[in-house]
Amino acid sequence: MPTKPTAQTQSSTAAPKAKRETVDVLVSGGGIAGMIAAAAFGASGFKTLMVDPTPPVTVGDDDASDLRSTAFLRPARDLFQRIGIWSALEPHATPLEALRVVDTVGADGTPSEVRTERQFEGTETGDEPFGWNFLNWQIRRELFAVLPTITNTEMRYGTGFKSMLTRTGEALVTLTDGTQVAARLVIAADGRHSPVREAAGIGVKTTRYGQKSLAFTTFHERPHHNVSTEIYREGGPFTMVPLADIDGRHASAVVWMNRGPRAVELLTMEVAAFNAAMTERSAGLFGALELASHRGMFPIITQLADRLAAERVAVIAEAAHVLPPIGAQGLNTSLNDLAQLLDLATQNPATLGDQKMLDVYAKARHRDISSRAFVVDKFNRVVRSQDGLLNAIRHMGLKAVHDIKPVRMGVMKAGLGPLT
User: Fold this and answer.
1) Torsions phi, psi of 291, nearest 5?
2) CA dihedral 105, 111, 115, 119 (to 10 degrees)
3) Phi/psi at 388 (nearest 5 deg)?
């Protein structure tokens, strides 16, 4: 008859116990928003762990590099100063002194003809630029370098979120390497397909426009004078955001929105033909344009989460909202999420992640996000349309927004902070 295993034998054959860690904040997602969230909570005294299964691409010539740019507005800069990362970012910033909006007419393959243009000056709302522009891959590179220097902060690439069990006092998160992490607050900053949001049972509503955007860097003959230029025509805007000169040549980051088939055509177009097409689309405002990078393509959607919080979970950034790339609203709206969450946490650290805190966060951000999504959605529908009446509305609306000072000031101030 077999003998009963001894306790020592049982111990040696048992499965190893999962590693257990305890933190204040677990950030799921190591993109720009996730890295900034980790820096913000760590710098504010909360033990913070950020995880992401994929290392960031921190060079510009990799096929996977993010060639889009982000114009961080003044509130974002203020947040970066508060958490101690602005000094690392500022050397790579190009100031945005003004926003130039140009209304044009034309068809694919023909030069755009300028109907009217207006310029919004940053000095009207302060004695400094509207914001500061960065290439996204550069932001990732600098954040990747600075995060290890921030106390209470650990970033762990190559390991991601797997599952989660929440209860009143904490969330117990299992990572893909088997580690279990007990956290008082889990921040879903893991993108539009957020695994944390899905695990929390939060759905989304998605609006598709049949548009895609190309993102790339271009050289141009004429200087930009630190002015961001949005050139509108049916199909969507052609936006040139200032960059520092590259090898002594004037350069800008471009986001070019089009109907899907046209965007695909442009993506695969031979370079000389593409240079001619984007020069025509820019109405020749900067002289001849020349491609200075490879081209990336991204779908244009509006996506809003049904809720911004669940038990011990806060949903931020693209996990909470995805907006068309108009008016620098995307990542700046994400940082408004973070600023609101951080303020609530630092005002009363003992309540970090509890239901009352999360309810206040969700209520405060819902109104601002919904308002911005509504405005950007309607604006995109007008500017992409080929309808003559809507084109006339776009033309008249641009002049009215700029030429009526109270309206102009209201629009600029709304762009710099949460809508009230």
Assistant:
1) -60, 130
2) 110
3) -60, -40
pTM score, whole prediction: 0.85
At 10, which amino acid appears? Q
The answer to whether the beta carbons of residues 320 and 361 sit under 8 Å apart is no
pLDDT, tens digit, 9 for 90 and up, residues 319-341:
999 988 776 667 888 999 999 99
Distance CA 107, CA 113 (A): 10
Mind listing the domains of the chain with CATH numbers?
Answer: 20-415 (3.50.50.60)
In this structure, the dihedral spanned by the alpha carbons of residues 87, 89, 91 and 97, taken in order and rounded to 10 degrees, is: -110
Instruction: Give the length of the chain.
Output: 420
Enumerate the β-bridge partners of residue 155. Answer: 50
Instruction: Provide the residue type at 378 as one letter.
Output: K
| pLDDT mean across residues, the chain | 85
pLDDT, tens digit, 9 for 90 and up, residues 125-143 = 667 888 899 888 899 999 9
Tell me what pLDDT residue 391 has.
55
Among candidate residues 321, 362, 374, 315, the one with its CA nearest the CA of residue 205: 321
CA Rg, the chain, in Å? 24
Question: Is 403 a residue whose pLDDT tops 80?
Answer: no
> Is residue 96 within a helix (H) or strand (E), and if so which, with residue range?
strand 94-96
